[in-house]
Amino acid sequence: MKAIKIAIILMGYLSLTTNQSQAEQITFNHLHSSTGQNSALSGDCIAENDRTISCSLRQVMFSKKLSKKDAETRTAEYENAIQDALKDKTPAQVVNQEVGKFCFGLTDLGNEARSKLSLEADVFTLFSALCEKPTIENLTKVFQHDLNKQLQTCKVWDYNIGTFQFEKVNERKWVSNNGPQGECGVITVLEIERDPEYSFLYTYHQRRFYIDTESKQCKEIAAINEDISYSWKGKEALKADCSYIEFGMF
After folding, report:
1. What's the pLDDT at 112?
2. Beta bridge partners of 187
């Protein structure tokens, strides 16, 4: 009898500590966007009391380094700048103005030093040709190569969204109300919801409301505002179309 009572007590204690552990911490890693964002969301939440949890949220995002539209704009700016420069300079003078110092350093290097440069082989070849033959055509090849590489490059970075307090509204949902903040009086409502069937899976929602839309800027921001959701049911694979990856915002 004593053995049975001890077993029952131990089972009750183990059950209690497991429930406490679940209440004290909520973790979700790399929830996929279900509203079209090129990012994933992670969070670590710790209970402050029976009703409140504190959650640190972070995002991993990626985007193209240069859009096609921006590439067209840069190309037009480059061509206009070249035309303006050629009004009072020769092609060689224009090239020297743009890359003269670099060419001086490049031609002054020995073969061993050149091989240690961080330049890619094709870039080194393009610059060597430009320095040996300073023409607008060769300058444009260098510009175009850099532009094409940026078009094929994706930027990836981590972003710490911040720490927020969530209030429990039912057994599966916590809500955080923030604001109004800033010039437009933004109220941001965040929700974390546990899946009804799988207790370790979560969905995150973010909604923004704009209290003051008198100014043109606030009206424009409010007009393009969209709800954001991340979920374990979100799209797992994203089409990137990248040949190169860079880390960091800049």
Report:
1. 55
2. 209
